[in-house]
Write a structure and sequence with these properties.
The protein is an alpha/beta fold. The protein folds into 4 domains: about 1-45; about 55-155 and about 535-544, no CATH class; about 160-265, no CATH class; about 285-435 and about 450-475 and about 485-500, no CATH class. It has helices at about 1-10, 10-75, 245-255, 280-285, 335-340, and strands at about 85-90, 95-105, 110-115, 115-130, 140-150, 160, 165, 170-175, 180, 185, 195, 200-205, 205-210, 220-225, 235, 260, 290, 295-300, 300, 315-320, 325-335, 360-365, 375-380, 390-395, 400, 415, 420-425, 445-455, 470, 480-490, 510-515, 530-544. Strands 6, 9, 12, 16, 17, 18, 19, 22, 24, 26, 28, 30 and 31 form a 13-stranded mixed beta sheet that branches. Strands 1, 2, 3, 4, 5 and 32 form a 6-stranded antiparallel beta sheet that branches. Strands 20-21-23-25-27-29 form a 6-stranded mixed beta sheet. The radius of gyration is 33 Å and the shape is globular. The protein starts with a helix and ends with a strand. The mean pLDDT is about 90.
Length: about 550
């Protein structure tokens, strides 16, 4: 019947009905397509927001790991802390925050022996949860298992937080573990040889067989010990460095694992920042003996010269002229023998107490140098340290060590400071302003670990490298300087900022007999308050 009625309609009516039917079909199709487009757009937007939340959670993980490592290194938390919450703020997401928590998994540390060094390892889990600020229904939670590894900084012959440069002008042998967090530049001048007697030469950046300031190789050789059993074997670099296409595999094949850098998985080790040595920092807060200018306090009690310690134990001079700095130094002179009281008696005939710190930590600073002088701390009569535990001397100023140090009945010892300066047994302040030939050094021996600042090498300026890590002020030509300890660099010098220069009026180089103190391989023989180098290894991760 419908068909018959339809046939009875006029042609115009028939056409109109067909048009309406076609329009209806198009509307249905369009509605479906529009609905699909909207759904796909919403899915695309949600995927975008989920991806952003994932990156936020991932950023929270990385920030929590970094903060965890630096907090241990800077003594803000104990190295075996159970839990640590961390909040990360993202300015790119309108100040959105991500909450993370670091939780200890292992009940105790595992001790792993690596290259003669005991590494303390403990596992932690880091959980980071990110809620997207534009859609709080989008939450991404990530889990990361990490191994927190602790290595005493002084169990390195050399540890540098910044670029490490070793470019000696004379034959030099370096023994012990070597690590730097950035790039390493190794070479030798004048057809001499830099010999690295170590099974661990690691860089968190690249390793180059050239100068940093010019980018050019020198005429000498770098010979590195091969990591294998049997008699010692050495292989030369011969321009095999990070610039070589075959570096990644050839370096392993040649040195059997001694030489590794970032392409082999070497990562940054976190160590204390310069804030730790300031007069309101960790070391000042924990020092049992504190010397400010010429005032000595022990356990918070101010000591009286002549009553509590011998006269002359702590004095002040302004007669030392530093040619590198171009300034006189307002110096606190600490006579370690007198401060110990050993061999000295009070006016009543009673012996003085030993005023070296029982906990082994002495902090010294000056706050009155003014603009005419540069401040400095000088250690004298330190050939024997009269404390069984040893001694760590810490200052936010440059430290000068006069003469033999810790050579009699050797104890664990360290100096942590803005810059370390060594003055020979023949040093005289009266000659410090005279020509270099008037300042002739004599054989001197120092047994101490160091943490000290350096300055940066720039184009046209070499900072002196490791071979000039201790700053010298005399004519040392053909004179032996013996050092047994550890060389650690964690910051740039902020007080002693004079540029390194060779020859008159500053100094000439000694015969360097520098060695790692193997006693430090025994943790019971490390200097008091030895800081940790903290390494984080990522083990496994997953997304909820």
């Amino acid at each position: 019947m419908f068909c018959n009625c339809f046939l009875k309609l006029g042609k115009r009516a028939q056409a109109l009905i067909v048009a309406y039917m076609i329009i209806t079909v198009f509307v249905i199709i369009f509605s479906g397509l529009l609905s699909k487009a909207i759904t796909e757009k919403n899915l695309s937007l949600r995927n975008k927001l989920e991806t952003e939340a994932f990156y936020m959670a991932e950023g929270g993980i990385e920030d929590a790991i970094s903060y965890f490592a630096s907090s241990i290194a800077d003594y803000q938390v104990l190295p075996d802390i159970e839990t640590m919450p961390v909040v990360t703020t993202f300015t790119t997401f309108g100040g959105a925050t991500v909450n993370s928590i670091v939780t200890r998994i292992d009940d105790s540390d595992r001790i792993i022996l690596e290259g003669g060094t005991n590494v303390l390892v403990r596992n932690y889990e880091v959980i980071s949860s990110a809620t997207h600020p534009r859609n709080n229904s989008i939450i991404v939670t990530l889990h990361q298992i990490i191994a927190r590894r602790l290595i005493p900084t002084f169990q390195h012959a050399v540890f540098y937080n910044d670029d490490l440069e070793i470019l000696p002008g004379a034959n030099m042998t370096l023994s012990g573990r070597v690590h730097c967090n950035k790039d390493m530049y190794l070479d030798a001048e004048n057809e001499k040889t830099l010999k690295i007697d170590s099974f661990s030469l690691h860089s968190g950046g690249n390793i180059y067989n050239q100068r940093k300031d010019t980018g050019l190789p020198l005429a000498g050789e770098v010979s590195i010990r091969v990591n294998k059993s049997g008699s010692a074997k050495y292989e030369d670099m011969d321009n095999l460095d990070s610039d070589a296409p075959e570096w990644t595999t050839e370096s392993i094949d040649l040195w059997k694992g001694t030489v590794k850098n970032s392409v082999h998985g070497i990562t940054k080790l976190t160590a204390p920042s310069v804030a730790s040595i300031q007069d309101d920092g960790y070391y000042a807060d924990n020092a049992q003996v504190v010397i400010v200018n010429n005032t000595v306090t022990k356990g918070g009690v101010t000591l009286i010269e002549g009553t509590d310690y011998p006269a002359g134990a702590v004095t002040e001079t302004t007669t030392l002229y530093n040619n590198r700095e171009g300034q006189y130094i307002k110096t606190t002179n600490i006579d370690l023998k007198k401060l110990s009281g050993v061999g000295y008696t009070k006016p009543n005939g009673q012996p003085y107490d030993n005023n070296l710190p029982e906990n082994g930590l002495l902090y010294a600073t000056r706050d009155d140098a003014g603009s005419f002088y540069e401040p400095g701390i000088r250690l004298i009569n330190g050939s024997e340290i009269h404390r069984a535990r040893g001694l760590a001397v810490v200052s936010n100023e440059p430290v000068y060590i006069l003469g033999d140090y810790n050579t009699i009945n050797e104890k664990p010892a360290s100096v942590i400071c803005d810059s370390v300066n060594l003055l020979s047994n023949s040093w005289s302040d009266a000659k410090s302003t005279q020509i270099l030939d008037a300042r002739v050094a004599t054989v001197t021996t120092v047994n101490s670990a160091f943490i000290s600042g350096i300055d940066n090498t720039t184009s046209g300026h070499y900072n002196g490298g490791l071979e000039n890590y201790p700053r010298l002020h005399e004519k040392w030509s053909s004179v032996q300087l013996n050092i047994k300890g550890s060389f650690v660099e964690l910051w740039n010098s902020s007080i002693a900022t004079g540029l390194w220069g060779y020859g008159s009026p500053q100094y000439t180089a000694p015969t360097r007999n520098w060695n790692y103190n193997t006693n430090f391989n025994d943790t019971s023989k490390l200097p008091p308050f030895t800081p940790w180098a903290v390494e984080i290894q990522r083990i496994a991760w997953w997304k909820e």
